[in-house]
Amino acid sequence: MTSMDAGKGSRMGGNGRGARRGVVSLGAVVLAGMALGGLGAGCGGEDSTTGKRLTHETVVTAGAEATGGFTNAMGWRVTLSRADVAVGALYYFDGAPVTAMRGRRLRLLDRVSGWLIREAHAHPGHYEPGNALGEMTAATSVDLMGGPVSVGASEAVTGVYRSASFDFGAKAVGPLAGAMGEAVVVVEGVAEKEGMSRSFRAEAKADEVLDTDALPVVEGCVFEEAEVQGDGTVTVLVKPSVWLDQVDFEEVPESADGEPVAFDVRGTPHKAFIRGLKKGTGYVFSYGAGSEEK
Questions:
Q1: How confident is the model at residue 16 (pLDDT cuts 50, 70, 90)?
Q2: 61 lies in a domain?
Q3: Beta bridge partners of 142
Q4: Which range marks the domain in which residue 256 is found?
Q5: How many distinct structural domains can be found in the chain?
Q6: Which stretches does DSSP call E strand in the chain?
Q7: Model confidence over 271-289: pLDDT tens digits?
Q8: Average model confidence (pLDDT) for the chain?
Q9: 230 lies in some domain
Q10: Paired sense of beta strands 159-167 and 217-228, if any
Q11: Residue 146: how many CB atoms within 10 A of its CB?
């Protein structure tokens, strides 16, 4: 065990999941004191082998989906015209992501009984984050249609990054706060299938994307495994295709005037959209050495 690990154990009680809950619910001040505050005592200088303090540029993007469109599981070709998301905070951990945990459970159950666990049973409640390795707590809002956006610096430490959590925050702040209002996600676009066309608007408020601990957080997201030893760039690939994958747009009324038709919050399309927002596969984190900016 490194001195950094020992420091974390004393502050975080050796319970990674409990520590993450404290971090997200109380914000950056608690995380600094609990998870990263031990760096001063637990980390040596630049030549130390016990871990060191790092700073990563943090970038949020939707990649090609923002402009190229996608086809969802219901056969609808979706072209977006707007995709705004609130970013409350981002956290990085060394625990395996939910998808990896799910795979191990499925293989074990397959061997024992030949059955498969249903998707509903493989929820983020099984996720064990492990040790906190970094945070980006500068709340903001991002226009995913505008290409990669630098959202601030992540304070972090060396280690093997494997998973992450995406926190929407209570409401949008930053450049899109006025346009988003009370929503943490706003998506507009056109969906087409077999001659049908639907101009739509989907949005969600923080209280609609709460996890099992009543926080607007998606945990257990994949952080493409990386042994991080120096400053670099953390990129968050947000995937609207996951958000809208299970939406059957045929249930959305046709637009009478060409303007987007908002999902009825009581309707099936809205419920499918909310489920999509909560999926960890909709947020993929990765690390690259060095900075995106020269």
A1: very low
A2: yes
A3: 85
A4: 55-97+128-289
A5: 1
A6: 53-61, 70-71, 77-87, 89-93, 132-136, 140-143, 149-157, 159-167, 183-193, 196-205, 217-228, 232-238, 261-262, 283-289
A7: 999 999 999 999 999 999 9
A8: 81
A9: yes
A10: antiparallel
A11: 12
pLDDT at site 236 = 99
Q: Find the mean pLDDT for residues 128-152.
A: 97
For residue 142, the SS3 value is strand
State residue 52 phi and psi, 5-degree precision: -145, 165
Residue 37 lies in a domain: no
> How many CB atoms neighbour CB 40 within 10 A?
9
Spatial distance between the Cα atoms of 54 and 27, rounded to a whole number of angstroms = 19
Query: Which amino acid is present at 51?
Result: G
Asked if residue 219 belongs to a domain, the reply is yes
pLDDT at 120: 37
39 falls in which pLDDT band (50, 70, 90)?
Answer: very low
Distances (CA, A) of 134 to 141, 153, 193, 246: 20, 10, 43, 32
- CA of 256: how far to CAs of 151, 266, 270, in Å? 38, 21, 20
Question: Given a cut of 90, is residue 117 above it in pLDDT?
Answer: no
**Residues 276, 282, 285, CA angle at the centre, nearest 5°?**
160
Categorize the per-residue pLDDT at 67 as very low, low, confident or very high, splitting at 50, 70 and 90.
confident
pLDDT of 155-204, one tens digit each? 999 999 999 999 999 999 999 999 999 999 999 999 999 999 999 999 99
- Which amino acid type is present at position 56? H
Secondary structure in 3-state letters for 22-70? HHHHHCHHHHHHHHHCCHHHHCCCCCCCCCCEEEEEEEEECCCHHHHCE
Of 100, 50, 65, 85, which Cα lies nearest the Cα of 221?
Answer: 100
Instruction: Please give the structure tokens belonging to residue 179.
Output: 């346009």
Phi-psi region of 63 (alpha: psi -120 to 50; beta: other; left: phi over 0): left
Mean pLDDT of 110-134: 58
